[in-house]
Amino acid sequence: MMEKYLNLNDVKEIRARSLIYFGCGAIQKVADVARDMKARGVDRAIVVSSPSAYKKSGAWPTITAAFEAAGVEYVLFDKNRPNPEVEAIDEALKVAVEFGAQGVVGIGGGSPIDAAKSVAILLKNPGKTAEDLYSYAFAPTEAAPILAINLTHGTGTEGNRVAVASIPAKQHKPAIAYECIYPTWSIDDPELMKTLPKTQILYTSVDALNHAVEAATTTCSNPLAITLARETVKLVVDYLPAALENPEDMVARYNLAYAALIAGISFDNGFLHYTHALEHPLSGVNPDVIHGCGLGVLLPAVLKEIYPKCAAVLADVLAPIVPGLKGCACEAEDVAKGVEKWLFSVGANRKLTDEGFGEADVPKLVDLVFSTPSLTALLAVAPTEATRETVEKIYRESLAPMN
Ligand SMILES: [Fe+2]
Questions:
Q1: CA of 226 to the centre of ligand 1 (A)
Q2: What's the 276 CA to ligand 1 centre distance in angstroms?
Q3: pLDDT at 262
Q4: I need a labelling partner for 127 at 20 to 30 A (CA). Which of 28, 158, 208, 305 fits?
Q5: Whether residue 381 is found in the same domain as residue 331
Q6: What is the C-alpha separation between 33 and 147, in angstroms, rounded?
Q7: pLDDT of residue 16 exceeding 80
Q8: Cβ–Cβ under 8 Å, residues 299 and 210
Q9: Given this model, what pLDDT does residue 53 score?
C-alpha cells in the first residue's frame, strides 16, 4: 500500500525510544520508576509542573509516596505556564541547581514536560541559559534523566525528543529536538486526564491530529510515521465526539491518549511542516492563543496547499474525515473544505480573525516564520516549496472560514 507514496530505496530513520507506561492506573508504575531512578544515581529530583494540574489530577500523593519509599528527595517548581517561557525555565533551573537535582520530573501537559526537558539539558550544561538553548547557541548531547508524567492527550512529548519554549522579548517560539531529551520513563494514565476541561480535550486532540497529518506528508516522512498517522486520525475522529459529550467516557479518553502518544512518535519520525511553523508565531505573538486552536485555524489552508503534492498519502490518512478520496490533486479544495467542516463540527470553529489577527498582521507573521529559530527547518521539509508567498497565502486563507 505505502509503495504508492514512498520510495523503496530511500533509507529512513525510524525512532521509538522512551519507555512508556500506558493505560488506566499507569500512575502506580511511578513506584518502579522511582526505584529505577534511585538505582541510576538520582538521589534528588526537581519536579516541574503548572500551578494546579499535579494536584487536580490526583497524581501527586501517589508520586510523593513513591519518591519517599524509594529514597528520592524532591523539590517542587509549580510556576510553569502554558506556552512556557525561557525565564520560567531559568527560574526552575535555579531551584534545581540549589537543590542539587540529578533528575527531572515533568508533570502536566506539553508545557511543563517541555520545560522539564529543558531543565534536564541545562543541568548538564552549566553556564548556559534557556535562551541560549532555544536560540541554538549550543547543541546539547547530554541531559539529566527525565520522567514525564503526562496529563493531557495532545503533544506526545512524553514519547519524543522534542521541546518548545517561547522567548517573549523576540516573540519567538522555537522548537528543539535532541537525542538526549527522550524521557527515560513516561507515564500516560488516562484516568489522570479526566479533569481536563472540554476546551483542552478538543484542542489537545486537534494538536495530535495535526502532528499526524504533518508527519505523514513531510519530505522526510517514513513508513512508521504514516502508519501511526493513519491510526491517529482514525482514533481522533472515532473518539473525540464521545469524549466531548462525556468527559468521563474512559474508552474515549484512553483512545485519545493513545492517539496523542502515537502522533508524538509519528512526528518524531516524520517531523512537522507548515501548520506548526505557521502556528508558533501566533502563540509567540499572543500567548493566549491555544496551540491546538491555532493549528485548527490553519489546517484547511495548509491542506489546500499540500494536497496536490501528497494526494495519495492524504487520501489514506484523511479517509475517516473525508471518505471516498481517490488521491487526485483535483480534490485539494474539497479536502480543505471537508476538514474544515469536520473541525467546525467538533467545535474547533475559530479562524485567524477570531484570534485577533487581521490582514494587516500577515506580513509580520510571515517575518516571524522566517526569523524564529527552527521554523525554517520545518519549512525545509514541507511538501511544497515554502516561499514567503506560500506562507502568506496560507495565513490569508485562514483569516475567515472557507465554507
Ligand atoms: Fe503541536
A1: 17
A2: 6
A3: 96
A4: 158
A5: yes
A6: 8
A7: no
A8: yes
A9: 83
